[in-house]
Here is the input.
Amino acid sequence: MGGESRYGVKAPRVVYEVFDEEVVVLDLESGSYYSLRASAAWIFQAAAGGASRTEIAAAFARGDDDRGHADRADMPATVGAFLDSLVSEGLLVPQPANGGPPARLDPPGDAGPFTPPQFEKFTDMQDLLLLDPIHDVDETGWPRAATKAGGTPK
Here is the structure.
């Protein structure tokens, strides 16, 4: 577990906010936004916090059988496939292993029966989101405006 790649949010391009039982992820480059609920929200937050796919799958495996978690043998493949989809969408990026101790994640809380993780992608507001001046920022992110070569705002 210790040498396995970890994940991080693809900042500053991607930002997210947690609302009760939902995580909303915004890709500032494409204008797409995503809704993640239940197991998907939990997996995204764990990965954004630097957990590896093995650690995330192990946390689900430690979960309460009464909540109907999926077959524990399938959990690494289920978690891995979902993380791969988040990476292919450009929301998460693999990070080099930090060599530190493995993360000890608590099993997901009262999320009810396990449902395979999935996200909803929305593109209906791309034009509006891309018009927002929050996109014209330097590498440190908002609220610092990007500048042209002469030092004037773009």
About this structure: The mean pLDDT is 76.
